[in-house]
Write a structure and sequence with these properties.
46% of the residues lie in helices and 4% in strands. The strands form 2 sheets. The chain has a two-stranded antiparallel ribbon with strand order 1-2. α1 packs across α4 and α5 crosses α6.
């Protein structure tokens, strides 16, 4: 029997094993989530035309700020607060925000790739584009790898890296497509 959508034959991944993008909230503290959103909303000129357009359209259509027809005209503090609520529950919104956020650090991409591959990371076929925000992340970092090891390896590759430890870990997750923890065992 064929179950469309449960296995991506092109990529060799069972779709029901993939986690939606908003699951990232398990690994992000609320203050860091707000920092991410604030950074994304600070300067739209830092993004490609496509990302800028998608971000603006999504904020206008999805984020509702009381008293403002266009959420982009609301004070940043209110826009961040309402965006934060949506970020917790909407995988499509998470994709838009994190896609913009990663563009702020993509100039470090090769540094991360080198460091992460040295630790045994593979890159999920879903990353970094995440075409389907409902089926985005795979579970499981290489055995014995934790946050401090990732941070150390990335900093070793670039002494002048201008990212916090939290930003390094999040960018590593987004770059590889793998959430921290052990790989889930297959049933059956």
């Amino acid at each position: 029997m064929d179950f469309p959508g449960l296995f991506d034959f092109e990529k060799g991944i069972k779709m029901n094993e993939l986690k939606p993008m908003h699951v990232i909230n398990i690994y992000i503290e609320s203050w860091f989530r707000q920092e991410i959103i604030e950074n994304v909303l600070t300067d739209f000129s830092a993004y490609s035309d496509e990302v800028r357009k998608t971000l603006a359209e999504t904020l206008k259509s999805e984020v509702k700020v009381s008293g403002f027809r266009n959420s982009l005209t609301a004070p940043k503090r209110l826009l961040v607060r309402e965006s934060d609520k949506l970020f917790e529950t909407d995988p499509r919104f998470v994709k838009v925000i994190l896609n913009a956020w990663t563009q702020l650090y993509d100039h470090y991409g090769q540094t991360f790739d080198k460091a992460l591959h040295s630790l045994g990371f593979a890159t999920s076929p879903m990353a970094p584009a995440y075409g389907d925000p409902l089926n985005a992340f795979e579970q499981g970092w290489p055995e014995g790898i934790d946050y401090p090891k990732v941070i150390e390896a990335v900093r070793k590759e670039d002494d002048d890296l201008e990212m916090t430890d939290d930003q390094i870990v999040l960018y590593s997750i987004l770059r590889t497509g793998y959430l921290p923890g052990e790989k889930e065992e297959e049933n059956g």
